[in-house]
Amino acid sequence: MDNEQAGEYMSKKILLQMKNIHKSFPGVNALQGVDFELFPGEVHALLGENGAGKSTLIKVLGGIYIAEEGEIFIEGQNVVIDGVNASHANGISIIHQELVLVPHMTVAENIFLGREPGKGGFIDHETMEREAGTLLDDYHMSISPGAFVKDLTIAQQQMVEIVKAISYRSKYWSWMSLPPPYRIKKWNSCFRPCVC
Ligand SMILES: Nc1ncnc2c1ncn2[C@@H]1O[C@H](COP(=O)(O)OP(=O)(O)OP(=O)(O)O)[C@@H](O)[C@H]1O
Ligand SMILES: [Mg+2]
């Protein structure tokens, strides 16, 4: 990188910054003063041996674990991520390595779990299935929104996870160790992924 390129790079705004993150579990210091920066358009691969703390770092970002020390900045603003909702509210979506879908619910119900469209105090299943269908079509996924997750292949279930993450219209996505078949043909224009 020459000086001009370096200057251009540094003048870009940091979208996401994690500073001096510490997280421990009984008997294990999983993260000790970890720093991470994400600039516009960047894709990162976080590499490390088993138990190095990759998932822990991403779970801190996703509000699943709360760091004992450290700060998180989003577009320069110091934010508190003290739970999954706070993470979503700050534009972060995580696609987990382990599937976290409910097998006995439909694809649409899983995508909109906890934020189902309502009508007259009831869940509006028609709207939910239509919107889920539109999202699946947009990303060229031939999965029925009314299908039960338990009847899908693992690859299809992972695709539903991806569509669910996209449906939050987040600015930052974190993928945890996704295996190869998960290619998506159309991306949201504000897609700023981070692969971990
Ligand atoms: N919920 C937990 N309770 C106790 N210890 C945990 C917990 N989660 C992670 N750890 C420990 O924290 C350390 C970091 O684990 P982490 O899962 O973040 O590693 P990783 O880099 O993602 O590993 P892998 O490559 O196996 O996915 C490990 O020693 C792990 O045993
Ligand atoms: Mg991991």
- Enumerate the distinct ligands: adenosine-5'-triphosphate, magnesium ion
> Which residue ranges are poorly predicted, with pLDDT under 50 across at least 5 consecutive positions?
177-196
Please identify, by name, the CATH architecture of the largest domain. 3-Layer(aba) Sandwich
Q: Major β-sheet, in short?
A: 4 strands, antiparallel
Q: What's the CATH topology name of the largest domain?
A: Rossmann fold
Amino- and carboxy-terminal Cα gap: 25 Å
Describe how the helices and strands are arranged:
Blueprint: H1 3-11, E1 16-25, E2 28-38, H2 54-61, E3 69-74, E4 77-79, H3 84-89, E5 92-95, H4 107-111, E6 118-119, E7 122-123, H5 125-138, H6 154-167, E8 172-175, E9 192-195
Parallel strand pairs: 5-8, 8-9
Antiparallel strand pairs: 1-2, 1-3, 3-4, 6-7
Task: Give a written overview of the molecule.
With 196 residues, this protein is an alpha/beta fold. It has two domains: 1-90, P-loop containing nucleotide triphosphate hydrolases (Rossmann fold); 92-196, Rossmann fold (3-Layer(aba) Sandwich). It is 29% helix and 23% strand. It contains six helices and nine strands; from the N terminus they run H-E-E-H-E-E-H-E-H-E-E-H-H-E-E. It has helices at 3-11, 54-61, 84-89, 107-111, 125-138, 154-167, and strands at residues 16-25, 28-38, 69-74, 77-79, 92-95, 118-119, 122-123, 172-175, 192-195. Strands 2-1-3-4 form a four-stranded antiparallel β-sheet, covered by helices on one side. The chain has a three-stranded parallel β-sheet with strand order 5-8-9, with helices on both faces. The longest helix is centred in the C-terminal third of the chain and has 14 residues, at 125-138. The chain is globular. It starts with a helix and ends with a strand. The relative contact order is 0.15. Mean pLDDT is 83; it is low at 177-196. The structure holds adenosine-5'-triphosphate and magnesium ion. Magnesium ion binds at residues 54-55.
